[in-house]
Amino acid sequence: MLIKKGAEANLYLEEWHNRKVIMKRRLPKKYRIQKLDKEIRSQRTVHEPHVIHKAKEAGVPTPTIFMVDVAESNIIMEFVGGKQVKQVLNDLPPEERLRLSRHVGGLIGRLHKHGIIHGDLTTSNMILTSYGKVVFVDFGLSERSTELETRGVDIHLMKRAFQSTHYKYARECFEAVMEGYAEVVGEEEAKNVLEKIREIERRGRYVSER
Amino acid sequence: MPTPNSAASYCLGIESTADDFGVAILSFDGKVLSNANSAYVPEKGGIHPREAARHHAEVAEKVLTEAFEKAGIKPQDVSLVAFSQGPGLGPCLRTGATAARALASYLGVPLVGANHCVAHIEIGKLVTAATDPVTLYVSGGNTIVSAFEAGRYRVFGETLDIAVGNCLDVFAREAGLRQRRGAPFGAMVEELARKGKTFVSLPYTVKGMDLSFSGLLTATVQLLHEKNHRLEDICFSLQEVAFSMLTEVTERALAHTEKPEVLLTGGVAANKRLQSMLNVIAEEHNARFCVVPKEYALDNGAMIAWTGILAYKSNITVPIEKSFVKLKWRLDEVYAPWVEG
Questions:
Q1: Quick one: A83-202 is in which CATH superfamily?
Q2: For an engineered disulfide with B23, which of A70, B67, B97, B181 has Cβ 3.0 to 4.6 Å away?
Q3: Separation CA B138–CA B134 (nearest Å)
Q4: Which residues of A are the active-site residues?
């Protein structure tokens, strides 16, 4: 069953060996010549599970990868049950909301500390499971980098997500994220990232929210 | 502010951001009366800003005269002067700006500073009748995917380093091709690529919505020096990789915004292979594909004049004493109240 149609890949919810799984398929693009198309899809099909694995090593919960089919550009992974942080954040009691935001910030800190840039940090890409665990999903735009610029862009995206989807609590939530982030990467690094975000905002590219 | 009879009011636009010096006269209802141009073609190497500016100063009088003669109007008939205020090469921009200021103050008419990138989009919309497109603007200096949202043309993706046209030009020079008037490097690479058969892998760099062409250029030049592949195959591979990158980012913007059109403009827009790729994604997303014809896709005075008219109708002008050129003026810094949305 198709659950999400993306520009680059489609997500299906399937039954696989008596298990509910997510199948991520990268479909051929007609505009590309076949050889290049195959190269790109294969490379991304290998890259994404690799980064998902690295994230686990960094201590960030991510879906378990069951199978990678490079020839078909297919990834079969655990279906993470729960709710998107996006769906729950606004309705949580204030204390809980801040605690969750701090926790998310800590997880982002761990990714960055291990040179992983998620590339699409929005609250819809974070699943809160019934056990209270937060699982990061969709590493399709991720990259390996330790540069301040990429970390800044990554967290800036998170800030924008708060401002568009959780505008009432955007400020306090983002501050809590940065607290959790600082606990992992250190006050100094967190300050550098915040300064970088200000610079990114000043570039005028993000003059007003989309 | 605008005169009641808009067909009888004329705007003169001066374009001078890089190697082209263009002067055009448009009526306020969007008719192009003349669109004169003189391009600076370097003996060898790329554009030298001072040399280009010297060329502009030398040809300014000739191109201005030509624009008036073709339009069949007198300088006194002009009621607005527009110039490209940026982004671009400093010396070139200043030469055009100086001419525009002199004209405006001599004629006693208002002056408008147009953003070069906005102008490319606006003239594209005018000549293709596109209403609200996702625009891919690809030239020697710019590589931008944009669409209008809430008062501005937003940048959905852009190059992080060099422009795609620059990548093709530098490669062509390294390959020993010689540019001639009327035969730009891009056309030569396209011609060779058509005879290419074997695809050679090259770095494909899309970071989120942004693009990078510098690594692709380095790798392609390396291939060239290895002398293991036919030049035709290298051109073919370079085009395939570069244009697939552009198409991927454009498609993502199209999927996100669900706009009704895809507009292709800039010097690289003339490339048939790029056109065919974008046509595929436009069809898949039920969007109309619009290619801006060469005369208006390359840098030209008409786009500046037309953007000047649009801005002026929204009461935007610039006093001469504040009309400094802006070398790094971003597309999304421009408030565009004349666009519906």
A1: Transferase(Phosphotransferase) domain 1 (1.10.510.10)
A2: B67
A3: 13
A4: 120
